[in-house]
Amino acid sequence: TDHVALGNEEWNPWEADEKNELAASQQRYEANLKKIKYARSHLEQTSLRVQIWGKAAIGLYLWQHIFGGHLEPGDVTAQWREGSQKAGKTYFSFLTGPSVVPGYFSVAAEHVVLVLNGREAAKAAYAAQWLRYAQTLLESRKIRHVAVVLLGNERCHNAWIEPYLRRNGGFVNLLFVTYDYASVNEEDIFQWPLGVATYRNFPVVEPSWSMLHDPRSYLCNFLGTVYKNSSRETLIEILKQDGLDKLCWIAAREQWQPQETNASLKNYQDALLQSDLTLCPVGINTECYRIYEACSYGSLPVIEDVMTPGDCGNSSMYHSAPLQLLKTMGAPFIFIKNWKELPAILEKEKKMSLQEKIQRRKKLLEWYRNFKAWMRQKFINTLENSFLPNDKG
Fold first, then answer.
1. What is 199-371's CATH number, 3.40.50.2000, 3.40.50.150, 3.90.1150.10, 3.30.450.40?
2. Which band of pLDDT confidence, cut at 50, 70 and 90, is reported for residue 158?
3. Considering only CA atoms, which of 119, 145, 109 is closest in space to residue 58?
4. Which residues lie below 8 Å from residue 190, measured CB to CB, with a gap of 6+?
5. Of 6, 20, 190, 238, which is least packed with CB atoms within 10 Å of its CB?
6. 315 with 181: CB under 8 angstroms?
């Protein structure tokens, strides 16, 4: 049988058995072909590799909360942590930790997102070192594109980064920046959410049945620093006047404390979980971590909707500062102009049924989940639209 040519279909001594075998092998062949095609199209789809260098705590909000990504090792104090995921046409890898230092890790992608802290002068100086490092990599053609996610200054004093932007002769293609920065244009400068205080190890919270359905012991909470002559003093006075502080979990301190202990974090999380409303008075900026942390626990933010001093404000794209991003996304919060409005809000709370509160929590948690998904999609689309077309040239 060896010498029978494969093309000779006239002679086949095993015709009966083989018909079945042939059909089966044809199916296997087609199935394999499908697999190969799928793998090939998958390779084509992943047309972008992006490495994110997390050198500010908001990088963890981006990666763990918005992207739902994981990090290895799980230990938050580890010197080096990394993770990866495929999203859209892009393969993302994320690096963070004190050991991530310029020149001491492998640059594994042509496209880089730098997550930097520009909140104050010393932080901006450190951020500038990273930008210079990225510039040398660009000049030596090790990388092709750079985007920046910036924890901006609370008064929107971000002028130091402007010269680095491509529009001003620099090399940064895209800037995602926190707070109502007036330069936001939705072309190369985008507003980014402040998110939760990951630097205090605020966790990713998965909504539970009890979070949605259980009655909560307090109408509202405010745990925070009360600055002299601030609206926070007014807030505390108003709560005390009508004895409303008895219905709310209030823990005011006079001095800001950056260091969170396990006990204080647990206490704070309990307060969010046990109250229907979370009071969000303005600080240096109207936007604060508390807003997002309250959303994580289904406690509705009551926001003092006033502009703070500084250079934040309306941009060419948005005219609803403060909190343009949240308002544009239809955040279902309570916005007030003055804490004198609070007693009426709390009176209304007292009369609400548990069923109504459950519906409101569902709406809030659903909105927050959609908000994070939308920010993720917008981030990916913006990178792909900016980085991919240039690749064809």
1. 3.40.50.2000
2. very high
3. 119
4. 174, 175, 176, 177, 184, 378, 382
5. 6
6. yes
